[in-house]
Amino acid sequence: RKNLVIAIDGYSSCGKSTLAKALAKKLGFIYIDSGAMYRAVTLYFIRNNVDVNNQEAVANALEHIELNFHSRDYQSHITLNGEEVSEEIRQMPVSEYVSEVSANKLVRKDMVKQQQRMGKSKNIVMDGRDIGTTVFEDAAVKFFMTADPKIRAERRFKELQSKGDTTTTLEEVFENLAHRDYADTTRAESPLTRAEDAIILDNTELTETEQLDFALDMVHQHL
Ligand code: C5P
Predict the structure, then answer these.
(1) CATH number for the domain that contains residue 36
(2) Which of 26, 139, 143, 209 is deepest in the core (most CB within 10 A)?
(3) Over its length of 223 residues, how does the chain's per-residue pLDDT go in tens digits?
(4) What is the residue range of 88's domain?
């Protein structure tokens, strides 16, 4: 391939999107948040009472879902059938259901196809769970991110609070992360796992600047 793809996979809330955005900005690449796509599909399923175990209903729903990114500012602004849903997809109802929806084979097939299309001709940084293993097995550089679960829960909790969520507790956030990590790593369809050639980045004790410097170093070594 002529264009460059940087794949960032890892557990929930360990700073993948923060690093991905910073890298994209620095390198002039387009940032694509694959998790936002699964979240937007989940929001559609919740709103329209789509039963994720009913394959016919899932297939039909997918035909009625159009997702678009507006990522000029390297934020993950996503629209679901024309409606801006970037804020709503981060809230707990979606977080609690997304791992079930994303385990569905038809949902994955559809999302992977769209993601591959987005990375066909442009330089991109994409973050998610299966980017280096499934979506872009031939990515130029792959990162696998991890961090202490407690630290991750605290970071996500603070983020929710700063967005005005005063009802979700730290314990609930911790439980949700643990649940998603378990579901994402044990599902049958492209489970979360480190690609053999992925560079491990544990950021428990790293600042955002240190992570970016490390990642840029790795990228320059690999290109
Ligand atoms: O990245 P984020 O935490 O927003 O992703 C939400 C959920 O979407 C994950 O917990 C996972 O179940 C699913 N996901 C996935 N494959 C991806 C990205 C996200 O299954 N590439």
Answers:
(1) 3.40.50.300
(2) 143
(3) 789 999 999 999 999 999 999 999 999 999 999 999 999 999 999 999 999 999 999 999 999 999 999 866 677 799 999 999 999 999 999 999 999 999 999 999 999 999 999 999 999 999 999 999 999 999 999 999 999 999 999 999 999 999 999 999 999 999 999 999 999 999 999 999 999 999 999 999 999 999 999 999 999 998 8
(4) 5-222
Within 6 Å (CB) of ligand 1, which residues are found? Answer: 12, 34-35, 38-39, 98-99, 102, 128-131, 180, 184
User: What is the CA(35)–ligand 1 centre distance, in A?
Assistant: 4
CA of 99 to the centre of ligand 1 (A): 7
Compute the distance from residue 18 Cα to the ligand 1 centre, in Å.
15
Burial (CB < 10 A; 0-12, 13-18, 19+), residue 106, is middle
Nearest to 156 by CA among 173, 168, 135, 169: 173
Overall number of domains in the chain: 1
Q: How many angstroms separate the alpha carbon of residue 1 from the centre of ligand 1?
A: 26
DSSP state of 135: I
Ligand 1 atom 12 nearest Cα = 99
Cut 0.90: pTM above it: yes
Q: What is the DSSP letter of 29?
A: P
C-alpha to C-alpha distance for 211 and 205, rounded to whole angstroms: 10
